[in-house]
Specification:
The chain is built from ten helices and 16 strands. It is α/β, with parallel strands linked by helices.
Length: 384
């Protein structure tokens, strides 16, 4: 049996970042994934600047090299639109590029990468054993929405409103320069997106909260076509769907020497479905915790994540709860279109670690009140 300080299962953004962080803390690291890299991964490919901030903090640069910054964002609802320049540019980086670059950084930092499908875990008093072949003082599960590590320590998968599904593909979309999000009246909470890659093509897709019922491929494609009429579905390539375990399920951090990060921990923003920032941030914190305090890694990690992201997670959950009503999200977009600070606040809440600001809530409430007054029928003599 081969021994390491830390084993990371899954080499996506959360797992590979965890491997980098553990190496930076001096641990020997084995990084396992069932695929070889580069490999495709179903995602919207939107990369907020916060992702690059976390990686730079670990000494990982050049992640966005060769990709044009996206400097503006538009939000569309059935009754309005808000668009504006982003305070800091985003990027659209296909996951087969992004993930491979972070894996290369992990290997460059000294992590050992192996292609291996993990089937069993056994937690002992002083180590975690993987498939009776590898062992480590701590183990990090970054193995995605269907996490085997999560199941092995008794945590159930998300259900009901805590789970969404999305389908994405790639298509020629000349002239698209902003990241575009189009909300849906029917089947809400749901939206379509079109994110320009910079070479005349775009990542396009549609996502919807499942509410405990399965959603067919045909349904997802129909909704995408309805919300993005500029594209022809016959021209869209690499169409694939995936589940999004939302953070409203109160993410479990792990247990003892076993930690969960990223999608395996249900760290998906319930307001927008964004997960890459949560992935690299949780990976960074978990990798350090596993390296410096393996026997109590889950507890140390839980404390670090709560301090760094706890308040934001509560606010994003509250935003998702408020936005269950289409009228609220429509009011939010109208408010964002009329107030630059509200626009910035909503973007930061949805793509980074922002909070529900009092000004934002006040502007949304005012929009709701105005629309209610406009819709109220006139009664002769009222108010006398």
């Amino acid at each position: 049996m081969i021994d390491y300080d830390v084993i990371v299962v899954g080499a996506g953004p959360s797992g590979a970042t965890a491997a980098v962080a553990a190496r930076r803390a001096g641990a020997s690291v084995l990084l396992l994934d069932k695929a070889s890299f580069p490999r495709d991964k179903t995602c919207g490919d939107g990369i907020a600047p916060h992702v690059l901030d976390v990686l730079r903090g670990l000494g990982v640069d050049g992640i966005a090299a060769g990709f044009e910054p996206v400097r503006s964002l538009s939000l569309e609802t059935p009754d309005g639109r808000a668009a504006g320049e982003l305070r800091r540019p985003d990027y659209t980086i296909p996951r087969y590029v992004l993930d491979a670059r972070i894996v290369d950084a992990a290997v460059g930092a000294g992590a050992e990468l192996r292609r291996h499908t993990v089937r069993t875990l056994r937690v002992e008093a002083d180590r975690v054993v993987v498939d009776e072949k590898f062992a480590a003082r701590a183990l990090i599960g970054g193995d995605g929405a269907g996490s085997m590590v999560r199941r092995s320590i008794g945590h159930q998968p998300n259900k009901g409103r805590h789970l969404a599904v999305a389908m994405r593909g790639y298509v020629a979309f000349p002239g698209l320069t902003d990241q575009r999000i189009v909300t849906s009246g029917p089947r809400w909470p749901a939206y379509a997106w079109a994110f320009p890659i910079g070479d005349g093509t775009a990542n396009v897709g549609y996502g919807e909260v499942m509410r405990g019922r399965p959603l067919s491929r045909a349904h997802l494609l129909d909704r995408m076509a309805d919300l993005l009429p500029e594209i022809d579905l016959a021209d869209v390539t690499r169409l694939r769907a995936h589940h999004l375990p939302l953070s409203t399920a109160q993410p479990r951090h792990g247990n003892g020497r076993v930690l969960l990060v990223g999608d395996a921990q249900s760290l998906i923003n319930p307001f927008t479905g964004e997960g890459i920032f949560y992935a690299v941030l949780s990976g960074s914190l978990a990798g350090h915790a596993a390296a410096v305090s393996p026997a109590h890694a889950a507890r140390v990690y839980a404390t670090a994540l709560r301090r760094r992201l706890g308040r934001h997670l509560r606010h994003s959950a509250a935003a998702a709860w408020l936005a269950r009503r289409p009228t609220v999200i429509q009011a939010a977009v109208r408010a964002a279109g009329n107030d630059r600070q509200v626009f910035d606040s909503i973007v930061e809440l949805g793509l980074g670690d922002g909070l529900l600001q009092p000004r934002t809530l006040g502007r949304i409430a005012r929009e709701l009140t105005v629309r209610t007054e406009q819709a109220r029928p006139f009664v002769h003599g009222a108010g006398r």
